[in-house]
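Please, structure for the following, as tokens.
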Amino acid sequence: MSAKYHVALILLVVACATLAGFLLESYWIDVAFLVMIYAGVASAWNIAGGFSGTFSFGHGLFFGIGAYTSTALFNDLGVSPWIGLILAVAGGAAAGACIAWLASRCGIGDLAFAVLTLAIAEIVYLFVDSFEPLGASRGLSVAPSMKGALDMQFSSGGAYLAAATGFLILCQTVAWLVYRSAMGHRFRAVRENPLAAEAMGIDPTRQRMLALGVSGALTAIGGVAYAQYLQFVNPLTFFGPAITIKVILFALIGGMGTPWGPAIGAALFFPLGEWLRSQFGGQLPGFDTLLYGFLVIVAVLAFPRGIVGTLARRFDAAGRKTAKPPSRLAAPHGTAIPAQTNEKERT
């Protein structure tokens, strides 16, 4: 994807967020906020799971690290969430790099690595769920502040939507830069064949540590933004598996391994789920979930490489079919093309 297409999509995101803030009701503004958060986290997950093949089932760990770091520092020490955001980024990056290093050190394969990340996230969830200084299972309420935006507390849903839009733009820009950089090429080399990548001088451990570190840092930012929006944190919401399941689903539907696929998947299917719930949830309990699952299956079957990946592949195939066959190479101007001779004439 070229820079002009990336900039065009960024401008489209800004335009949609602006229109949503002015035209939609408060409920749908909240839905738009969540779309931005989930799209950003899905894009962050894609840097590790899609680009480098570092498939994580425990991204709720990084999401919770961001939320609890900023909230605890603000409640107990009065540290602004903006400063807490920096510490949350450092915590998410460190956690991701350590997990990737541990897996490589122990020789854990791809499937076992996914289980390892899930297990670590569950261990931290159970610990926080019983740790009284962090509110245990009751959670923590974010202390109100009179400073407003200086303490990341905004007065309207539109302002929170603007902050979430900034988060999505950050995640997409980082993902796009990584995808086009030499780092992105090394990530994909490790994903496709770690042994071949290592033979070319690429250290798979280092690349996976970088991928999961960057992914964890961005996910932690999403946790901070979501905590400030809810003004409340609890272990199940932030450390539980729900956030990871959703972002992986959006990445798979949109196009895992593509810069904009996960964001497009979230933009299409999260509002769809909310609309189905609003239409059928009260009248036919459970029918909205059944219909949503059916639509997900249809999307996966219709777009086996994700929406972006499948459409890109089909457009490339169509372009190759319509392209003219290459003409015979012409000799330079003024140079005669020697006549072909058969084998008998040469002898």
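Residues 343-347 have pLDDT under 50 and may be disordered. The longest strand covers residues 140-141.
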